[in-house]
Write a structure and sequence with these properties.
Blueprint lengths: L13 E3 L8 E12 L5 E5 L4 E4 L10 E15 L2 E23 L5 E5 L7 E2 L10 E12 L7 E4 L3 E13 L6 E4 L4 E2 L12 E12 L7 E11 L11 E2 L1 H9 L2 E2 L17 E2 L1 H9 L2 E2 L3
Parallel strand pairs: 4-6, 8-10
Antiparallel strand pairs: 1-2, 2-3, 2-5, 3-4, 5-6, 6-7, 6-9, 9-10, 9-11, 11-12, 11-14, 12-13, 14-15, 16-19, 17-18
Length: 293
């Protein structure tokens, strides 16, 4: 499998110049979900697996995806008496993290259209991705760009680009770290296990990150997790509330006899006869579309 390269080494830390004898300040940048921290302080849980306390939440509320930038403090007192790494004196703005498709927009410009069907974005960085590719994008949302002039579209700036990954699978205990075994048989460490434990089946969506640090000290392709949740039951194989092409692809990839139960669950065996075949395909197609609540 070919994985997209990181286009920009965003969300890194680096020293900034200061005057006099003060130690240099270190800039911290992070895209993540705003959440509650200890002692009533706020934290941002990054999609790269890191968590920082922050000083300024602006007009954002818990659960929103934000991009913060400020001074990195290793042992901050923002959550006194608990000390945590923090990004202090921070700016805060909206951030996007998720999968979508590159499409041709107005005036022939290139737009990134998220999977949820929301309005498209212009990307500051496309990397090696081409029209029609499904990619994972992460970066701050900023003022409109004129790439589609005279039409204006919001810009995702300073962004990362990875190949999009989405699959059901099982979490397992590894020698160095826990890992996720996808239904395809591929094995990846995850940036975030979402509170799930080894042995549980989960659905993961995110980006395939080359040389990820998620199984330190072994650099390897890992999944930068945008969403993680319990797998669906029945024809909605990925548990996203709709039976569509993603479920069809998962079923076709599992076609044939089911593996031994202790090796991998056989989610696509909808009728439980020990084999994924035309009967399961017919059951999935008959349920095509949004699930009836």
């Amino acid at each position: 499998m070919t994985h997209f390269r990181i286009i920009l080494a965003a969300f890194v830390v680096f020293p900034s110049v200061t005057m006099g004898g003060d130690p240099p300040k270190v800039l911290g940048q992070l895209c993540g979900v705003l959440g509650p921290g200890p002692q009533g302080c706020a934290v941002v849980e990054g999609f790269d697996g890191r968590t920082f306390a922050i000083e300024n939440t602006g007009d954002f509320t818990l659960g929103e995806t934000v991009y913060v930038s400020g001074t990195l403090v290793e042992n901050s007192t923002l959550c006194t008496p608990v000390t945590l790494p923090a990004i202090e004196d921070n700016s805060i703005e909206p951030c996007f993290a998720g999968c979508g498709t590159l499409q041709i927009g107005p005036q022939g410009c290139t737009l990134f259209v998220p999977n949820d069907g929301s309005a498209g974005f212009v990307l500051a960085n496309l990397g090696d991705a081409e029209i029609g590719d499904r990619i994972y994008v992460e970066g701050p949302i900023r003022d409109g760009a004129l790439a589609c002039f005279p039409f204006e579209a919001p810009l995702i700036d300073d962004n990362l680009v990875f190949e999009c990954f989405s699959s059901c699978g099982v979490i397992v205990v590894g020698i160095v770290c826990n890992a996720f075994i996808a239904d395809s048989g591929e094995v990846f460490p995850l940036s975030n296990y979402g509170g799930f434990n080894p042995g549980e089946r989960v659905f993961v969506t995110g980006g395939l990150e080359p040389d990820s640090p998620y199984c330190f000290p072994i650099p390897q392709v890992g999944v930068r997790v945008a969403e993680i949740g319990a797998c669906g039951v029945g024809p909605d194989l990925n548990g996203d509330g709709i039976v569509d092409g993603a479920d069809l692809a998962a079923l076709l990839s599992a076609f044939g006899p089911c593996p031994a139960p202790l090796v991998s669950p056989c989610l696509a065996d909808l009728n439980g006869d020990g084999i994924v075949n035309g009967s399961d395909l017919a059951a999935l197609l008959s349920a095509w579309g949004p699930l009836v609540q």
